[in-house]
Queue: 4 jobs
Job 1
Amino acid sequence: MAKVNLLPWRSERRKVRQQEFLYLLGGAAVSAVVLGLLVMFYYSGQIDGQTKRNAYLTDQISQLDAKIAEIKLLDAKKDKLLRRKEVIEQLQANRSQMVQLFAEMVRTSPDGVRLTSVKQDGDKLTLDGQSQSNARVSAYMRNIEASGWMTNPDLSVIEAKGTDKTLPYEFNLSLTLTKPGQLIGPDGKPVIGPDGKPVMNPVPGAAMTSSASPASDSAAPPLTAPAASSAASSAASSAASPATTAPAPAASSKGGATP
């Protein structure tokens, strides 16, 4: 005998499927929430790590900036010390140069020339003096050209003031200080190399002899002229001395005969 089910099975089946759908929907929602939380935690951790790295880099940059500032201060101190060292070395080098310079000034000064003032401004030297004549000043300039420590003499003023009868002419002379073998440019100034030091002539001896020999030969006559004049004056004084001293013995002999 067949059995007939008259219960509403379709509605019950529909309720079961609805329940299953709700379960699946809840599980998907929970999974989405969990997945979202995991993604959020992951990116939050990445952001925190990057923030820490940025803070570390900022701290290191600030430390490097402090070190760079310290290095700049050390470089400034180094430059000051180097400048002081260069000044000290220059003073040490110029100490013997000044002695040699005064020796050269004495050696090159001919008879009949007297210096009244000497002024130095770097490599420039200004001389004020008195002379007996223009020829003595010319001889002095030729002697300066022949010297290895002074060059490029420039006579700016020479005039007869008449204040001193023995040295009536006053002159103003400027020249350039050099060293033996130092290369001189066409402007009369020492040639300076890329390192800031004077350029030396590769063959200083030949250059000095070639430039000094004509000057010394030309300077010889003016130097011998004062010597001849001094010799003539001494001869004249010696010739005149017997005439002036002759009466003295006669007077003394008379004085000795009276007693």
Job 2
Amino acid sequence: MEKRNDDEEEPTAEMTDHVDVTSEEIQKTQADPETAERFIAEKHIGDRIRRLRLKKSMGLVELGRHTGLSASFLSQLETGRVVPTLRNLARIAMVFSKDLSYFFESEPAAIFRVHRQKDRVRLPQTGVEPPTYTFESLGFMVPDRHMDPYFAEFIPMTGDTEPKAHVHPGFEFLYLLNGELELTHGEHQTVLAAGDSVYFDSATPHSYRCAGQTPAGAIIVTMHQPLQAQPSRSQAAGTSGPRPLSAGPQRANGSEDGAEGRF
């Protein structure tokens, strides 16, 4: 079915009698109708209206009562068979407490990244000799991510070497896959076995030690959070920026790598 605009206006004499151009020149300067239709379709206005309505568990008839528009017209809007006027779109926006610009803003692209095991790089803990663990970033290909997942393998320590405590902003989740791992978090100390998990705020000084004779493997997820949200703990730990004391690798040019270990 051909789309129509319910607010389309035909040019009047008042609009054209002051412009001395030929019809061919007018056609050259007019926007291509197909391009305009494609631009509107790409905004998915009908889909956005439908999502807002269903989120409120609202039927077409009820939305029609709030907007003064018929249910059949709203159905055509949602299916893309008609293009709404700004006036009608504003009516719908007000029902859902949205600004008119909501229907024209670019929608964020869905994030989907697969990380193959063969593509991952295993890196050692930096700043400690010898390193007490190695790690692989499981999310290094995701830009602007809100969490950092890792696979870490903790190496049995020899002698009386004490693990170095560190802090970083946010929260941390650890799931132990195999082996035994001793975790010190502030005044708390516990030994985790395979299948155990722990969730804690990482602005408190914490450290790990492999508690068995074989390496301990774990999945670790760190959640980002600005230091300002936890000023007292960060100041007590002596941090002055978002980079943890046990920061991970850097690129060759000295800038921070997206795969740095923040745990």
Job 3
Amino acid sequence: MSKDTKTPKDTHYANLRRAHRDQKRERGELPSPPPFRKKKAEDWKAPQHAPDIVFLYGLHTVRAAISNPSRKLISLKVTQNALARLELDPETLSCPVEMVSPQDIDKLLGPDAIHQGVLLETRPLPVRKLDSLKETPLVLVLDQVTDPHNVGAILRSAVAFDAGALVTTERHSPTESGVLAKSASGALELIPYVQITNLADALEELHKLGFQTIGLDSEGPAPLEGTFDGGKIALVLGAEGKGLRQKTRATCKALARLDMPGAIKSLNVSNAAAIALYAARNHLAK
């Protein structure tokens, strides 16, 4: 057998050796390897691709996308090592699989993307409308939260607390992208990401669907826990710094605050979302 031919057994033992080395480095028994010097980000130019194409990357993100029946796959570019870690049989996929080097993926995503040796080319997820939320008791609404890392973290919390959707505006909000999906760590595939044109109109539509809309505001007149009323809740959060816009505040059925006894009185929007979802779930469970 050629030295270049690797069997599943070889790959298994290579993974075990790598894990053993990583554990020794964490204990300080081995020095950390020198940082891998990629091409500088300012020297990289993004290749042109069609607007209806989404590049997803990272092992967990790609695994979740492949498992999502609503996700239309176009192609998978993957290294030999990443394919073994994905634990997928290429023959079972609905798209072509191309074996590549990490550098090939760097050329498409740039040197800063932590792709872990895998890139999935897909179509965007199907558009979802607000009237599809009739049967869910809990949704999360974002008022111009622009950072895809924050929105990704919020998606994870929304899935963890079984919210029915994350609603956000088409403008001043991140579109579906590899950065958003990677930050969500698979959650983008598990919850509708509903983008609407006008937030005030969307809140009024949620009212017609029976939702109590509660805007989170540090100066809210009452604690969130005492504001819940009814069996359908829509939590509305604004961007860090500016918070909810005036029109949004005026349209919400109620404004509420998160009481914090400590010296710090404000939280990152993703942390505030997680706490608010927890409180809402406690109310709905009663």
Job 4
Amino acid sequence: MTVSEHTRTSPLVAVAGSDGPAPGEGTRGEAADRSIVGRLDAILAAFEDHDRALSLGEISHRVQLPKSTVHRLAEQLCSVGWLQRNSGGYRVGLKLLQLGGVALQRNSLRERAYRHIYPLAVRTGLAVQLAILDHGAVVYLERVVLAGFGLPTRVGGREPAYCTALGKAMLAFEDEPTRSAALADMPRRTASTITDPRAMRAELEAVRRTGFAVDRGEGYRDLACVAAPIRSSGRSIGAVSVSGPLGRVRPQALIQEVRNVAAAVWEGRAAPFPPLPAAL
């Protein structure tokens, strides 16, 4: 097949055309976002952290593109299985979910971690999660929930790093530009959320000294979490946490368990941690 033939038959390429942005069409400020790839990416990103269907108007508002443009692109995404359309609007298609599952399955960190985090969930009776840091957000790679309670997180979901133990455990070992970007905007999520950058920097310094982070209802009012970074060459490549209802999480009893599992996930255990403080 020649290039011209492929262009005529590919449903995604056919959307682009050669006439540039539609009249009156807004941009997101970057040249890439005016391209077909940028628009498709923006539409798919609108579904992050949303399991429900989104209406055409909701997607248009999120991506700041006209409804006519969104409709044209969304229909093309439906034609290749990346989105699905029903009476409630559009939602993520099976093909995209399948591709996401393949990406997670191929993640070596996730594969190495599972044999450690499942026993941790059994021993503690709490939920155990594995995550990485991406542009100031925690991305959940795996979770094991054996206890009789639910969590608002999901595999593949994202949460702000500053208000989670997982995020603080990883931010503490990041470079200064990454930390500064993550702390630039810290809206209050609950009464316990740390919103002062100076207080957060002090907290991250404590994480560097002790090797663990605690979230006492900072992201979600009734949930607590203890996390430890998975470190390689001094940097954090991920983190492990134990989470549960605020009244059931006892940090002092969980810290060593979580740190040991985080160290075991990465081949070559980290250096010994300093003694734990007398009280938390």
